[in-house]
C-alpha cells in the first residue's frame, strides 16, 4: 500500500493525499494552527477510516452469515490525550444495523470479530485507546429497534 501526501501551498495548512488506488483526499488544519478549515483534520480522517474499516467487516461477516443486512452505520466518539502526542485514549463505536430478522447474537459476533481479528485500524488504535462498542438493530419490516446492547472494553 502506498500514499503520497502533498502540502498544497505556502498559505494555509491544506494537504492532498493521493492513495495507491488513485483516489484523492484533502485534509486541512484548524485556523489556530494555520489552517483554513477547508477539509477534515488528519486525525478525523484516521477516525473515519477506522469506522469504515470496521463497518466494512461487519457487513461482510453478516452477509457471509446469511443475514439480510440492509444498512450499517457506525458512530465513533473519541477522546484524545491532552499532551503531545495527542493519541486517541478512548473510542466508543455505536453500530446501527438495519435489516430483516437480524439475529442479535450474529450482529454482536460480527462486531467482535471485526474488533478482535479483522479491522487493522481498530486493532492498531487499541494499542493506545480503550475500545468499547454498542449496537442496535432496526428491523426493516417493522421499523422498530429490536435490540440495544453495549459491550465493555475490548482489551
TrEMBL record:
Pfam families: OsmC (PF02566)
InterPro entries: KH_dom-like_a/b, OsmC/Ohr_fam, OsmC/Ohrsf
Cross-referenced NCBIfam families: PRK10738.1
Protein's recorded name: Peroxiredoxin
Organism per entry: Herbaspirillum robiniae
Amino acid at each position: 500500500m502506498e500514499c503520497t501526501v502533498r502540502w498544497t501551498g505556502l498559505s494555509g495548512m491544506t494537504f492532498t493525499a493521493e492513495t495507491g488506488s488513485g483516489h484523492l483526499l484533502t485534509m486541512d488544519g484548524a485556523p489556530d494552527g494555520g489552517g483554513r478549515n477547508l477539509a477534515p483534520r488528519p486525525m478525523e480522517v484516521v477516525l473515519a477510516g477506522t469506522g469504515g474499516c470496521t463497518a466494512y467487516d461487519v457487513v461482510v461477516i453478516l452477509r457471509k452469515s446469511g443475514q439480510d443486512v440492509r444498512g450499517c452505520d457506525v458512530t465513533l466518539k473519541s477522546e484524545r490525550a491532552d499532551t503531545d502526542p495527542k493519541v486517541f485514549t478512548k473510542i466508543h463505536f455505536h453500530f446501527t444495523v438495519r435489516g430483516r430478522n437480524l439475529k442479535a447474537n450474529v450482529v454482536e459476533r460480527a462486531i467482535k470479530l471485526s474488533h478482535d481479528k479483522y479491522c487493522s485500524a481498530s486493532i492498531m488504535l487499541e494499542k493506545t485507546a480503550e475500545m468499547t462498542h454498542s449496537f442496535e438493530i432496526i428491523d426493516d419490516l417493522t421499523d422498530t429497534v429490536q435490540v440495544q446492547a453495549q459491550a465493555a472494553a475490548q482489551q
